[in-house]
Every structure is written in structure tokens, then in C-alpha cells.
Specification:
With about 290 residues, this protein is mainly α. It has eleven helices and no strands. Belongs to the binding-protein-dependent transport system permease family. It is found in: Cell inner membrane; Cell membrane. It holds the Pfam family BPD_transp_1. It comes from Rouxiella silvae.
Length: about 290
Amino acid sequence: MTQLIPEQPTQVRVTPSRGPRRLTTLSIGTTLAIILLLAALFAPWLAPFDPNIQHIEIRLMPPSAEHWLGTDGFGRDLLSRVIFGARPTLLLVSLILLLTIPFGLLVGISAGYLGGWVERILMRFTDIVLSLPSLVMALALVAILGPGLMNGALALAFTSWPPFARQARAETLALRRSDYLAAARMQGIGGFRLMFGHILPLCLPSAVVRAALSLGGIILSSAGLGFLGMGIQPPTAEWGSMVAEGSKVIFDQWWVAAAPGGAILFASLAFNLLGDGLRDKMDTRHGE
């Protein structure tokens, strides 16, 4: 008699359907930063009026269909000046990052890899600069060098590099006795070639994240210089100086200060969200 074997049920693999893509901090921050960058690049085409032409007859006009954000004390269109104000702000931020990131990484990697008296001298100098109030030192340097875009970038860069140096030193100390660098030394690689050919690429991702996180503070510091008259000089549209102009009439014509203040808020929020998103993306300990 033949034994009947029960037929095994066929397993059907069901692929779960993907729902709508969830918004993340990185996507929101990237979108806002791209909007800011596009506004700066295409300012001559986006601005409805010339940002520097004065019309005294329409000074301090409230927001309307013709002037969406109103006009300032010289009758200039605030929307046009806010759009053009993104240009010097982003240029100043770019100059600061180009100065601070390479110098901070150089000091931190050199201190962590060489050690000894070199590390003590470099890190004590870093601690001294880090203990100084950044905006006060920037104001002092600008007062010595004179107001302007490049001088403002140099002044803010002088007090912005220590966090990059301390972070690079900590990562270099962790890598100095790693198997990766030991294998590189066995192949005859050492000195500056090891520092900047093998250690530097491993320190760059965290430096990029820190740079993105510090952009919001840099924008606020640059706006502070402009507010105090130490940044980019009029008639160039700059958000900090525009807030300073609007502060004189803030109780009666609030829009004169609110328009550039909102632009500063938008830029700081964009780069803070971008920095948080990059940190979550590059560091799995902060992942969701």
C-alpha cells in the first residue's frame, strides 16, 4: 500500500508595499539650503527692483502688492535687498570655512600624531583662542584691520578654528595605534604622507558635519558684525546692517527689521537642519 505524503503548502513571499517617503532632517535642511543658494545665484533675475536705487517718495512703505516686504528708510525695495543680501552672507561664510577647516585640521592632526612638546604647544594655543569671546575678538580685529568682507572673514575665522582642531586631535589619537595605520607603517609610509594621506581622509567626514553645524553660528556672528557697522559697508545689501537700519523705526515700521531678520532666521535654520541631518547620516550612533 502506497503511503500518501501530504503536500507541503507553497510559501508565498509577500513584499511589503512602500509607503510615501518620509521627510527627514537632512532632506528638509538640504532643500532650504538649496533655496538659499539659488536665491543668491539668481538674485539679479529674482529681485523685482534694483536693491540700491533710492526712492525717497515711497520711503517706509508697508508691504503691498508692488513691494511685498515694504520699503526701507531710503525707499529701496526690501525684498530685493533681502535676496541680494544672501550673496555677501554666503560669500563670507564660504571664506570663513576655507580658512578655518584646513587650519584646524592641520593643528589637530599635527598635535595628535606628533605628540610631545608639539602637542602641548599647539593645544595650549588652541585652548587660549577657545577661551576668548569670539564676537568680542572679531570686533577687535575688525577695528584694527578695518571693516570689509575679507577682514570680517579673517576676524571670524580666527576664533572659529579651535573646535575643528580639538576634534581632529581626538580622532587622530584614536587612530594612532590602530591596525590600519600599523599596516601603513609596515609598507614604509610615515611622516606627512601618513598624516595627510591616511589620517586626514578619516577626519574629513566629522569635520564636514561640524562645519555644517557651525554655519548657523557663523551667520549670526557675521550678521552681528554688520549690525554693529563692522561688516560689509553700505549701500551693499547685508542682513545685519539692514536689521540695524530697521531697529531705529522698529516700533512704527516693524517690517524694515523683520524682513532681514527673517532671512537670518531662515539661513540659520537651514544650515542647522543640514548639520543635524549630516550627523545622523554619517554617525550610526545618532541614526533613527
